[in-house]
Structure formats: structure tokens, C-alpha cells
Amino acid sequence: MNEKRAADSGSIPVVLVPGWLDNANKMGSLATFLRKEGFATLILSPQPSDGSVPVETLAGQLAEEIERRFAPGQMIDFVGFSMGGLIGRAYLHWMGGSERIRRFVTISTPHRGAIGGRLAWQPALRQMVPDSPFITSLNENLDDLSSRPFLSIWTPLDLTVVPADSSVLPVGEARRIINPAHALMVYDRRVQRAVAEFLAEA
Predict the structure, then answer these.
(1) In principle, which of 33, 82, 125, 143 could form an S-S bond with 51, CB 3.0–4.6 Å?
(2) What does 39-94 look like in DSSP terms, one character per residue?
(3) CA-CA distances (angstroms) from residue 19 to 7, 169, 171, 200, 201?
């Protein structure tokens, strides 16, 4: 488990999870922005992130780290980028995350799948094929998202998540931000500001 942690504060801690082929450094810019806005942040990067293990395996790592690092009953806010959003959803859906997560944010996450997964051999990428058993199971009941504040930030120019509007679900709030590249979304100051504003809402 790759991690970076900020000093604690009185706010609800924000757990950030990067995506495919990423490590904790990927979320560093966003974490720095959030810290300047007064949030306590913890970046957790389940490994390996190359797709060679199922999403549920990575979600299990996430669940173990959250239980180890936070006291029983401690609520958290969650921010996941790309595959990190699916890791968070698996944790929320199957592994007790509903008892921990207050607000749930995803950035360029293929909630309804990505057609590029059809060309992949890696288990996690195969799980992201539209209408795969994994995607179908996550989306057949969206109560875990509709029962808490949920924000999905996406770009219509995404060439990694295809179709790009796979990031949009029929629950929660979707925020479209025009950015030319999937990988740049977490560095976009408009994205960072949108995350901070959403997490700060009463």
C-alpha cells in the first residue's frame, strides 16, 4: 500500500485513491490544494495498480488500511480518480464503506464501463468492460450512492474512459469540466476547486 499523509485537523479526513498505473504521487497536487483549504488528507494507493488483480482485491486493501488508521465510527470523505473511484465503490458497496463514508467524489471514473477494457488481459481492466458482471453488480442498486452526497466530475474529451459519459450515473451530481486529457484531470484547478467546494458543503 502506497501512501502519503497530511497532518490531522479537526475536519473530517479526506481519503484520496488514485487509479490505473498510478501511485500516491498522482493525488499529491489535489491533496496539497485540499490541505490549503483546511482539509486533512490521506492518500492511499492500493497496489498493484496495473490491473493485474481484481478491483475487489484492491478494495480489500483499502478497507484494511482505513480500519487500521481510523478509530471505530470515524467518518471519512472519499475522493477517487479513475479506477480509484471503482475501488472506492467496491469498498462502499461490499466491504463496509457505507458505515464510514460521508461524501463520495469520483473524477473521471468509468462508472458504466470503458470499451477499452475489451482489449485488455488484466483482470481489473476486463472488469471495466461495459455490462461486465462487476459493472452490472455495482450499478444494479445505487442506494449506496443515492443515500449520501455523491459528485462525479468528468470531461467529455476523455479518451481513456470511452464513452466519456460513462462517468455519469443517474444519481448524485455530475460536474462536466472541459479538460483535454484524462490523466490531467486531478491537476486541473477547476476540478480541485469543485472537490473542495463539494466537501465543504454543510
Answers:
(1) 125
(2) --EEEEE-S--SS-S-HHHHHHHHHHHHHHHS-TT--EEEEEETHHHHHHHHHHHH
(3) 24, 19, 22, 24, 26
Retrieve residue 32's grid coordinates. Answer: 496539497
CATH of domain 2-200: 3.40.50.1820
pLDDT tens digit sequence for 37-78: 999 999 999 999 999 999 999 999 999 999 999 999 999 999
Tens of pLDDT, residue by residue over 160-182, are 999 999 999 999 999 999 999 99
Domain residue extents for the chain? 2-200
C-alpha cell at 29: 497536487
- Tally the C-alpha atoms within 13 A of residue 87's C-alpha that lie toward its C-beta: 33
DSSP conformational letter for 165: G
| Whether the predicted model's global pTM rises above the 0.90 cut | yes
At position 196, the amino acid (one-letter code) is: A
**Side chain identity at residue 119, one-letter code:** L
Among 172, 166, 167, 110, smallest CA distance to 147 is for 172
Cα–Cα distance, 56 to 86 (Å, whole number): 9
Let me know: does 169 contact 177? Beta carbons within 8 Å. no
Q: Where are the beta strands (DSSP E) in the chain?
A: 2-5, 14-17, 41-45, 76-81, 101-107, 150-154, 173-176
